[in-house]
Structures are given as structure tokens and as C-alpha cells.
Design a protein that fits this description.
Blueprint: H1 2-6, E1 11-16, E2 20-25, E3 30-35, H2 40-58, E4 70-74, E5 79-83, H3 90-109, E6 121-124, E7 127-130
Antiparallel strand pairs: 1-2, 2-3, 3-5, 4-5, 6-7
Length: 135
């Protein structure tokens, strides 16, 4: 993080998870993920795992629009620079996830599921259930 500041790059804190802290680069559609202090080994491994998963998912052409762009990955320090994606409301997230599910189900199983949205999705014992598959 110090190197970014020394280079004159202004960072705005966004959020943090279990392993990393996320900052948005001011005036630029990019974020930087830094491992948390004291959890450095786990944060570094978490970044390595994330990049590996992104690479594996990139093998599926239909999944390209749904995975984040990684512009820089420092394996040694666990720093990632990725495109910034704005947070969205839960209802909109479910609808967009539904479109991804529709695409994958159609491709893998050959079944069309075109009516996935918050009114047609429920939870049962920690599982997601599609309650209306009429369309």
C-alpha cells in the first residue's frame, strides 16, 4: 500500500473481508486488494487461489462476461489490481445471477429456464430452490 501512495496514487477504502482489504483507485475504474496485516500468508494464498479460479473459469467462453478482469497480480505479496464493479441491490443481483444460471443450464443440460428472479427463488434448509420453472 505504501508503494501506491509513494507513486502518488490515491486510494479510497471500500471494504474488507477475512483475508484482504479493498481500495478503489481515485479517478480510475480499478480496485486494489491488499492482504490484511497479520494474516499475510492466508491473504497471499487467497489471492493466488482467486487468480487460479479466474483462469480456470476463463476457459469457458460463455463465462467471460461474468468474471472480473485482473490487470496485475503480485504472487509474492498477494496484491491484486482488478476492474472496479459497483455494488448492486440484492434484487438486481438475483436477477442477473438468474441470467447466468439460465445460460449455463441451457448450455449444460439443454433446458431453458427464462423466468429466474426474486419472486421465483426460495430457500429451503440452506439451499436455493427454483419454484417456478414454467418458462
Amino acid at each position: 500500500m505504501i508503494a501506491f501512495r509513494e507513486a502518488g496514487i490515491k486510494l479510497r477504502y471500500l471494504n474488507e473481508g477475512v483475508f484482504r482489504r479493498v481500495f478503489k483507485i481515485s479517478g480510475c475504474p480499478l480496485v486494489v486488494k491488499f492482504p490484511l496485516e497479520g494474516e499475510i500468508a492466508d491473504g497471499v494464498q487467497h489471492s493466488i487461489s482467486e487468480v487460479a479460479r479466474i483462469k480456470r473459469l476463463s476457459r469457458v467462453k460463455d463465462f467471460h462476461p461474468h468474471i472480473p478482469q485482473v490487470f496485475y497480480h503480485d504472487k509474492k505479496n498477494g496484491v491484486l489490481v482488478m476492474r472496479y464493479y459497483a455494488k448492486m441491490e440484492d434484487r438486481r443481483a438475483v436477477e442477473l445471477l438468474g441470467k447466468v444460471v439460465q445460460k449455463l443450464v441451457s448450455k449444460i443440460v439443454g433446458v431453458r429456464m427464462s423466468d429466474i428472479h426474486t419472486d421465483n427463488v426460495r430457500e429451503a434448509s440452506g439451499r436455493l430452490v427454483f419454484i417456478d420453472l414454467g418458462y
